[in-house]
Please model this.
Amino acid sequence: QVQLVESGGALVQPGESLRLSCVISGTIFSLNAMGWYRQEAGKEREFVARITSTGTTKYADSVKGRFTISRDNAKNTVYLQMNSLKAEDAAVYYCNDWPARFSWGQGTQVTVSS
Model:
């Protein structure tokens, strides 16, 4: 059974940075394209970024140039470095493979407020 455990969310001020982590177990992580997604209260979950097994990345237009997705296959972990955070980045962030197939984890809350 695949498990996804996200962490790293926090309350930050606009302009600050955060790094989210997601540890995956129960699958051959190195073979999966992985993605980060986010969901604001009352809205649909949306795509944020993805990274293929070979390291090719793609980002939503809203985060391009500010967020960086990376992976460490030895640690079964995918990261999301978020810089220059804006109020509109506030959401619960989730990881999954890409496209999302596994059951969702609990997510990690990112709050951006002054």
In short: The first strand starts at residue 3 and ends at 7. The chain has a mean pLDDT of 95.
